[in-house]
Amino acid sequence: MSFSLELVQDAEIWDALVYTSPWNAFPQSWQWGVFQEAQGNTVRRFVLREQGVPLVVCQLLQYKRSFGMSYWVGVRGPVFLPAAKGREREFFHAFLTQLTGQDFPDHALFFRFEPMLSSDIGKNIMPIRMVRTSARSPAATRVLSLRKTEAELLAEMHSKTRYNIRVAQKQGVVVRVGDQPEDIERFLRLTKETSKRDAFTPHGDAYLRATYESLAASGMSRLRFAEKDGKILAANMEIVYGDTLTYLHGASSSHERQAMAPYLLHWEAIQAARQAGLERYDLWGCNPELTSSYYYKKSWEGISRFKQGWGGELIELIGTWDLPVNRLFYLLAFPKTVLR
C-alpha cells in the first residue's frame, strides 16, 4: 500500500476536502485555523492519501509549553473521508505513522486527537500507545436532521419543549439576528450574567469577541437574540460551516425566565438553518447516555435535558486521546497518567 501525507496550503482545496466528510466540523475549517493563527498558534493541515485518493484530513494546532516543548491538537480531528469507510483503523494507523515521521517545529511532547468517529466504530481503532484524556471538545452531542419537515421536527420534540416554544410566542418574545455593532458587547454581558448565576467559568471576553469577529468576517459566525419589550432575554453564538449550523455558546437573562425565551431562540435558529438549505443543527455538547461513561459530567445534566428535549440523535464520539512522542517527558508533564 502506498500512503502519502501531504501538507495542504490552499484554503479552497482544504475546505473542499472537509466538505466531503459525513459531518462538517467547524474546528477543522480553514477559517478556524486562521483564527487560531491570530491567537498565536501555529497551524498545519494534512491529508492522507492512498494512491492519490484522499482518506483522512486533520488540521493541527500547536500549543507551546515551558522549556521549549509544545504539543499539537487536532480539534474534532482527524476527519475520515468517504473513501475511508470500513477501513478507519487501518487508515488511522497509517495517518499516525506518517504524521510522527514529519519534522515539527519545537519539541513535540505529544499529539492530541478527537477523531470524528462514533464510540461504536472508534472503540477498536485506538493504538495501544495512545492515552485517553479529559475531553477538550464535548465527547457527545445531539444533532437534528434538517432534512425533515417542520412538522416532523416538532413531532420529535418532547411535549414540554413544544409547549415552551408556544409560551414564548404568547409572551411576546421576538427573535432577531445580531446586526448591530454593540451586539457582541451585549452578548458578552449576558454571558457574564449567566456564568455568575449558573456557577461556571466562561471563555474570556477577548477570546469570545475574537471568535465572533474573526469568523463573522467570513460569514461563519452570527449572534441571535431573543427579546421582549426591547430587553434581551437570551442569546446564542452560532457557527455555520458546510452543511451544519452549530450552537456554540449560549446565554440567558435571570429576568422573566417564565417567558421561555431560549426555546423560541433555538426554534427560530432551527427553522432559519433549514430554510437556508443546511442539513444539520448541532447542539454541540451534552452528556453521553450512561452515567458510567468516562466523559459524563454531573454539572451537564441540566443542559443535557434541555438539549434532549429537541429530539434528534445523540452522537457519542470516541473522545479525546493523546499520542505521547516522548513517553518519559509526557509522564513528567502528566504524572497521574497511566500508559497502556
Characterise this structure.
- The chain has 340 residues and is of the alpha+beta class.
- Helices cover 33% and strands 27% of the residues.
- It is built from 11 helices and 15 strands.
- The strands form 2 sheets. Strands 1, 2, 3, 4, 5, 6, 7 and 15 form an 8-stranded mixed sheet that branches. Strands 9-10-11-12-13-8-14 form a 7-stranded mixed sheet.
- α9 (261-275) links the parallel β12 (244-252) and β13 (280-282).
- The longest helix is centred in the middle third of the chain and has 16 residues, at 183-198.
- 41% of the residues are buried.
Short description:
33% of the residues lie in helices and 27% in strands. It is an alpha+beta fold and 340 residues long.
Counted by DSSP, the helix tally is 11
Helix percentage:
25-40%
**Low-confidence spans: pLDDT under 50, at least 5 residues?**
none
Summed over residues and divided by their number, the pLDDT gives a mean of 93
Strand content: 25-35%
Distance between the termini: 29 Å
Find the count of extended strands (DSSP E, 2+ residues): 15
**How would you describe the oligomerization state of the chains in this entry?**
single chain
The gyration radius over C-alpha positions equals 21 Å
- How would you describe the shape? globular
Q: What order do the SSEs take from the amino end to the carboxyl end, as H and E?
A: EHHEEEEHEHEEHHEHHEEEHEHEEH
Largest sheet: 8 strands, mixed
